[in-house]
Amino acid sequence: MNAPYAPAAVAGLDPPCEPAQAQLLALQQRLAQEQYRRALAEQVLTERTLELRGALQTARDSERRLNLALWATGEGIWEWDVAADRVKVGGLVTGGQPVDLAAVTLDQLLAGVHFGDQPTLRAALDQHAQGEQAQVDIDFRMRLGGEWRWLHARGRSLQRDDQGLAMQVTGTIRDVSDQHEAEHLRRLMAHAFASTLDALVVVDAGWAVVQANAAFEALMGLEGGGVAGQHLQNLLRFVPDPAQPMPWRGEALMRDEQGDRALEVAITRIEPVAGGQQQHLVALRDISERRRAEQALERQALFDSLTGLANRAAINQHLAARVGRADAPGFSLLFIDLDGFKAVNDSFGHRAGDQLLQQAAERLRTGLPQAFIGRWGGDEFVITLTDGGDDYLLRESAQVIIAALGQPYLIDGHRMSVTPSIGAVNHPADGTDAALLVRRADAAMYAAKAQGRNCLVIYTARLDDGVARSSRLQNLVRSDAERNAFHFVVQPKVNAAGRTTGAELLMRWTTEEFGAVSPAEFIPIAERIGMIPLMGRHALHAAARIANEVRALGSDASVSVNLSPRQLLRPDLERTVLHACQHNRTDPSQIELELTESALVTDIGHVEKLLIRLRRHGFKLSLDDFGTGYSSLSHLRNLPFHKVKIDRSFVMDLERSPKSRVMLEGLVRLCSNLGMGTVAEGVETEAQFALLRAMGVDEYQGFLFARPQWQAQWIAKLRQELAG
Ligand code: C2E
Ligand code: CA
Ligand code: CA
User: Fold this and answer.
1) Ligand 1, atom nearest to 489 Cα
2) In a domain, 131, yes or no
């Protein structure tokens, strides 16, 4: 500081010469000194003022700076005047809104704090006030602006009294809700990451594993760790192109000791924090089980579960696709039905039938590897030939099918055989509609059956008449059965000496539309539409009436009546049969009931009991058509038959097959040993008759002796015979 001008000259004056003058001089001196002092004081004062101003400025600046700092961190200031019990909060911003609390009591403040945080906040303040804690540093929730916000308060006391109690505590306060939420979320995520059943792995930009969860380690079979740092490709043998747009979803295969596993993969890019590395989150889910279930469902929906061939739905789908377009290429459709399959099912049970179908399906697959093959249902198959529309190819393929399916089947040690009847259509010549094609192929198949089975019939327009015929016949059988429009003929049976032993009742039917219809055609229809029990009742009454006429002649000849398997299944059969006899006053011993073997397998226990009861009533029982289907010798032994009727096919073979002869000889002897009679059916020649007689067959039936005839004819002949 520069000193103000000092009056040195005054100080250096000569001594006063005069008292007045000396007095003046002294005064002047004092004045000068006074002025000097004053100047000095002024100067000091000015300097002090400036200093104070500067300090003030500095203080203002630092307050501004402090406020700026607080604003930047979002912090406010709180003050607690302990002695006065006053709390002030200022400058706090939460949710974009300023919060200012002016002078409330601590209790008032606490009232706004979350119930759960009140005790801890109070304790923190008290402990600090009492000097137990160096500072206040606490998070708590407070209701602000209608919602709970997390606040973080820090602070300490500026002054303590003699007892060391804080007088005033001051500090900062900040809304930390976002951090809390982020933290909560982080914990949740960490928990989810660790415990989810999905395999999760975080990989770096080079697809190396940064972090993996337990499910991922389990999926990799690396539960002991050792996943980190590994390249994803080494673990999965799969890595999507990182250039793929993210998120990426797809599937990948993983191969391990357990075989191939299907994985569902979802990849998301984790946006890097500033300066951080690009990472990806890869989520994997083992969907092998689901895939397997889906595939099983798909197979079920489109494949026949027994044979693995396409099922009816799949056939329809396949056909629809092939006929769909106008320019669809030509193809041939074959409809196959197995002849004799019913007998397998009936004689050996459904399990054997199923096995036969499986083998048949396999043979078709092997025989026609290029063809589409499906199971239409039951013993029916549908085949489409890849390049079709050509009759030559069609016949070739049919030959393959006939050869393949005609081989004997070995099932459970039994040899069985079936043959195919095949109907075929050509697309587009025979139709451009899938359903129509199948219908026509089916009609052709029926024609093949009618032509003697085991052959192919290619559809022609004429066959449509056949389809119309069968549906028309169905209606006619139904109405004619209801009005009892069927009638009966009898075919006599004779013994070795040619004397009549009885006659078999055979049903006949003549319609206006179709003329005479064979029982071989209408009996199966009647069975199918459930009219056979009614028609069978009529037959039983007819047989009883004829038996009465025979008795009236004094003959003990019997009348045989055929029982269909369907009738046998009915619980009222016994009653029906008895009723026919009682109603007509006929002795049951005059009635012979003929049952085919296929009737026996349905429920052998039930049939056995039924037969025993019928036998007790006095009926004669014979086993019809023995030698067709799959005759079982155990039926002969276990069931109470009086007679066995040897099938016509057996008799036909006699002359040319020595083997048949030997077998038949054995059979006749066996029956006689078991106390059963034998009847030979379909005897047409003297040679057959001679051979059968030599074997000791008891009765004979066939064109050689008599054709089926009117009842009156037979009765007349019988009367003659008795008279002669
Ligand atoms: P089935 O019980 O085996 O009857 C014998 C069949 O052989 C009869 O055929 C008869 O006419 C035929 N036949 C007899 N002798 C000869 C012969 O020397 N040569 C040839 N080629 N055939 C001969 P039909 O009358 O056509 O009956 C066929 C089948 O229809 C019967 O076979 C039987 O299973 C069934 N059926 C006929 N009438 C009835 C009936 O009233 N009820 C039931 N449920 N079925 C019946
Ligand atoms: Ca018969
Ligand atoms: Ca027969």
Assistant:
1) 25
2) yes
Containing 175, the helix (H) or strand (E) segment is strand 166-175
Closest residue to atom 43 of ligand 1, CA basis: 562
**Consecutive 10-residue runs of the chain (724 residues): their mean pLDDT?**
47 57 85 85 78 80 72 80 90 82 87 94 94 92 90 89 89 90 88 86 87 86 79 74 77 73 85 80 87 79 90 91 78 94 86 96 94 94 80 89 94 91 92 90 90 90 79 91 92 97 97 90 90 95 97 96 89 94 97 87 78 96 83 79 92 88 90 94 96 97 97 96 90
Instruction: Note the pLDDT of residue 326.
Output: 65
Residue 647 CB–ligand 1 contact under 6 Å: no
The response to whether residue 523 sits with its C-beta less than 6 Å from ligand 1 reads yes
| Cβ-Cβ contacts under 8 Å for 228 (sequence gap 6 or more) | 209, 210, 211, 212
Q: Across the strands, what pairs with 266?
A: 249, 283
**First and final CA of the chain: distance in angstroms?**
181
Domain span holding position 155: 74-181
Angle in degrees, 0-180, between the axes of helices 532-552 and 463-482, rounded to the nearest 10: 60
Residue 15 is predicted with a pLDDT of 53
The domain boundary, picked from 71, 86, 108, lies at 71
Q: Is residue 4 part of a domain?
A: no
Chosen domain end from 181, 207, 223: 181
Same domain? 337 vs 485 = no
Ligand 3 centroid – CA 680 distance (Å) = 9
- For ligand 1, whether the C-beta of 507 sits within 6 Å is yes
Burial class (CB in 10 A: 0-12, 13-18, 19+), 238: middle
Our answer on whether the CB atom of 597 is closer than 6 Å to any ligand 1 atom is: no
Structure tokens at 694: 């030599």
Q: In terms of domains, do 148 and 39 share one?
A: no
Q: pTM value? A: 0.51
Query: E-strand spans in 31-83?
Result: 75-81
Query: Does 84 reside within a domain?
Result: yes
**CATH code: domain of residue 335:** 3.30.70.270
